[in-house]
Amino acid sequence: QVQLVESGGGAVQPGSSLRLACAASGFTFRSYGMHWVRQAPGKGLEWVAVIWFDGRNKFYADSVKGRFTISRGDSKNTLHLEMNSLRVEDTAVYYCARAGGRDAGVADIWGQGTLVTVSS
Amino acid sequence: DIQMTQSPSSLSASVGDRVTIACRASQSISTDLNWYQHKRGKAPKLLIYAASNLESGVPSRFSGSGSGTDFTLTISSLQPEDFATYYCQRSLTPPYTFGQGTKVEIK
């Protein structure tokens, strides 16, 4: 079945780096764009980044631009989020989601999320 | 950037009630609007895409309408499994901004 599984979350100090991964299965990964979306404790969903199916285009929320990098490894059906210069306000559950083929903004399949805690 | 504003932020309703959630965009987004359901500890779920199209497998009691700046998600007869938080999201062009969410609670 179609599945996304995130990993790589954990507790880190402000200023640290962390790399999240999202393993995809059950669909042709290279044919779809992919998103990262996060939810801070007690807050709503916040879109973080998207990468086009071919990896040529990447877009970021202003809150992470210049600090986070989205990438994909099509040979391993894996999506990544490299997070640098982490801040306390980056504390959140991070979800990866598949971008619907009809409109890259539609997130039609989601993972269960991985928790990132940034604290001193 | 386009801002998305939902109302109300929360509501209390009973099983069987008709529930309506509003979403307003700060400028016209045609029908580039999606709706999601999110339950605590679970993955968010796509309900409606392109303002009014029901995602496959989603019950027909969910419907969406609107275009331009004003959109609505309607649950025709609230079921116990529908108690959750609902989000609208601007689509098609990044940034894909979410509304702040509407929590639907049991009355």
Task: Give the helix/strand layout.
The complex is a heterodimer of chains A (120) and B (107).
Chain A: E1 3-7, E2 10-12, E3 18-25, E4 34-39, E5 45-51, E6 58-60, E7 68-73, E8 78-83, E9 92-99, E10 107-110, E11 114-118
Parallel strand pairs in A: 2-11
Antiparallel strand pairs in A: 1-3, 3-8, 4-5, 4-9, 5-6, 7-8, 9-10, 9-11
Chain B: E1 4-7, E2 10-13, E3 19-25, E4 33-38, E5 45-49, E6 53-54, E7 62-67, E8 70-75, E9 85-90, E10 102-106
Commentary on this structure:
The complex is a heterodimer of chains A (120) and B (107). With 120 residues, chain A is mainly beta. Chain A has strands at residues 3-7, 10-12, 18-25, 34-39, 45-51, 58-60, 68-73, 78-83, 92-99, 107-110, 114-118. In chain A, strands 2, 4, 5, 6, 9, 10 and 11 form a seven-stranded mixed β-sheet that branches. In chain A, strands 1-3-8-7 form a four-stranded antiparallel β-sheet, with no helix packed on it. In chain A, a hairpin with a 4-residue loop joins strand 7 (68-73) and strand 8 (78-83). Chain B is built from no helices and ten strands. Chain B has strands at residues 4-7, 10-13, 19-25, 33-38, 45-49, 53-54, 62-67, 70-75, 85-90, 102-106. Chain B has a six-stranded mixed β-sheet, with no helix packed on it. A four-stranded antiparallel β-sheet of chain B has the order 1-3-8-7, with no helix packed on it. Chain B is globular, with a radius of gyration of 13 Å. Chains A and B meet through strand 5 and strand 10 of A and strand 4, strand 5 and strand 9 of B.
